[in-house]
Design a protein that fits this description.
single chain; alpha+beta; 4-stranded antiparallel β-sheet; two-stranded antiparallel sheet
Length: 117
């Protein structure tokens, strides 16, 4: 006896999503091997779409990123040009129980450094 009921896109035995019907007369659940006739899927229309971003939009984003440094400025001294003033941002690059990685960019020469905190 089935544990699940409802949508015909799900296996009535284990609740797993059925694969798309193929050339066979049955659809087999990939988890529990339950088989069902494809007649249950008759009349259903499957549609899928892929949306691509316009090339112009992605080029604009790249240009914006290069034009101006954004973020908080700290009084850290650049190790290349020896001037004070660096923009920084943080990322969690290592495991969650370790500190964040801080990325610094010099506002004068755009030299980049990183520091593990």
């Amino acid at each position: 006896m089935s544990c699940f009921s409802g949508d015909s896109n799900f296996c009535p035995e284990c609740g797993t999503v059925f694969p798309l019907p193929g050339m066979q007369d049955t659809v087999t659940c990939p988890l529990c091997s339950f088989r069902i006739s494809i007649r249950l899927f008759a009349g259903q229309e499957i549609k899928s779409t892929v949306v691509f971003n316009p090339i112009e939009q992605s080029l604009m984003l790249e240009e914006e990123d290069d034009s101006e440094l954004k973020g908080p400025v700290t009084d850290r001294r650049c190790s290349r040009c020896n001037k004070e003033g660096m923009v920084y941002h943080t990322r969690q690059m290592r495991s969650a129980d370790e500190g964040q990685t801080v990325f610094f960019t010099c506002i004068h020469c755009r030299y980049q450094e990183k520091e593990d905190s």
